[in-house]
Amino acid sequence: MYGMGVREFDLIETIVDLLRRIDEGRKIVKETQHISDSFWRVHANRERADQVIQELQLAPIPSDETARNQAQAELDRQVVARQRLRDESHDLWRQLTETVAFTGPFSNDVSLLLERLPLEPKWDLYRRALGKLDVRQRSSWTDPPENSALDTLEMRLREMLDLATPTQRKQVRRVDPFPTPDGALWKDVTIAFISDHRVQITVLGVTEPRSYADMGFEDRRGGGGKPDLAWVCLRSLAELAGVIERRVHFEKTGWKKIEKKVQTLRGRLKELFGIQDDPLPFRERRAYEAQFKVILAKSIEH
């Protein structure tokens, strides 16, 4: 990750770069979650050690010399153990702060973007809204996040990208192709919904989290910022174990509408993964059957 530096400012390029860095940052935080878990475990143990030492220091001094020596030995042992925990805690804290070192330059570049937005009234709302968001804390970058600042920032940046490219909004759908390994088939693809707007994709050992917008499923009407009907169709597949049956599931809603959604979904998936075989063939038993695995992650099953 890098800052904007002094190169010539390009509004669209800058917004696209910030969106890319959001995905990279989420990936870094996910891959280093074990460091955070270890730090808080050691921190809790250190606090318990402090409490034990305090209790030993406040305990009455035994009159018996043997008991007094044993009490002192136990106190000394606890002090050594606490120091070891302090050293481990300090080392883990150093590692933990390094994992989010990117958030400082990233936040500075968001501020620089706001300073360099066009001096037109339509951009004023974004200056005010984004200026209030603080995404320097690790809690903004976890998945799911502990606070919504980064998700809000990402949504506003996509709105700004649409605003910066009004002539392209209806003509170009932003799709970031998945790095599908050579030779992969649809049976090698797994799409797991980890939230209403994000999935975890795995193909032959290659795993990446993606949002609906990254995958080309953004409804750009009215300024965008929400998934389209093809995304709803994909989510339905996850809920229905990969099978959309005409008679059972969609008899009342109008099969023609379902067919249109599936047709759109087919095209998006082929474009995203670069696999040209049909990902959603229509079987003889009058049902669409996904040739890939599409599921709801345990975190959103209930």
Summary tags:
9 strands, extended, 302 residues, alpha+beta
What does this structure look like?
The chain has helices at about 10-30, 35-60, 65-100, 105-115, 120-130, 150-165, 230-240, 245-250, 255-275; strands spanning about 190-195, 200-205, 205-210, 220, 225, 245, 280-285, 285-290, 295. By secondary structure, it is of the alpha+beta class. The protein has two domains: about 1-170, no CATH class; about 185-300. The protein has a four-stranded mixed beta sheet with strand order 3-2-1-9. Strands 6-8-7 form a three-stranded antiparallel beta sheet. It has a two-stranded antiparallel ribbon with strand order 4-5. The model is unreliable at about 1-5 and about 165-170 (pLDDT under 50).
Approximate shape: extended
The arrangement of helices and strands along the chain is HHHHHHEEEEEHEHHEEE
Give the class from helix and strand content and strand pairing: alpha+beta
Largest sheet data: 4 strands, mixed
Rg, alpha carbons = 26 Å
Q: How many helices in DSSP terms?
A: 9
- The low-pLDDT segments are 1-6, 167-172
The helix fraction, in percent, is 40-55%
**What is the distance, rounded to the nearest whole angstrom, between the alpha carbons of the first and last residues?**
36 Å
Q: What's the arrangement of strands in the largest beta sheet? A: 3-2-1-9
